[in-house]
Amino acid sequence: MRIPFIAGNWKMYKTVAEAVKYVKELRALVKDVEGVEIVLAPPFTALHAAAEAARNSKVGIAAQDVYWEREGAFTGEVSASMIREAGAAYVILGHSERRSLFGETDTTVNQKVAAAFAAGLVPIACIGETLDERERNETFDLLDRQIRHGLGALTSDQIGQLVIAYEPVWAIGTGRNATAAQAGEAHGHIRKRLHQWFGPDAAELCHVIYGGSVKPENIADLIAQPDVDGALVGGASLDVRRFLEIVMRSRGRDAARAD
Ligand code: 13P
Question: What is the pTM of this model?
Fold first, then answer.
């Protein structure tokens, strides 16, 4: 049984002081909350301080990227073991902003996902189509390619531990979320492929979460879809009360599915 997984991707927002204040507030608000996994992804500068503030709480910490080498002359890069040592347990990989602005490809995702697992980090691997690709009816082909090339080298066990974030690029930061039906269809396709390519156990265990303009107002409909296991939240995660609202509403998943 997959419990809902709600992660806040802060992108390039929040200073160390702001991050610590937020984490302290959130950890107190969720201290008695069960049945949902809660993760925050601060920028690198605030990673360690946020992880310290979240220690022994219900809040997990993620980095937003990683480099695949263990150490070396790679100016500006950070390794998976450094991220682990800083206190994070997760890492976001292959985000569409990294793909479109910083040259990330399925090949680099493949290397990063392996490095993350080797260091004991849980990867949150992002996939998703652009508007052009959706309009040309290429969504499923693109998802297949991103899974095959980015994640194809993983074992079934690793797929079972992985979080896949389906983030249609046209829904990110636009206020235009995928409808629950569109998300449900894409997630159903991803689950089917995981089953075909990695087996029933991997498909059953892997969390497939949705990202793209998730807010308190639409989380209940999205999470009611059978294959939507949570959310990767950008803008709405910057405000602790709005993020908390999303966390709390995601717990109504089983009730919403029964409607
Ligand atoms: P928004 O929620 O701001 O659309 O961002 C989504 C996202 O990119 C999360 O990784």
Answer: 0.97
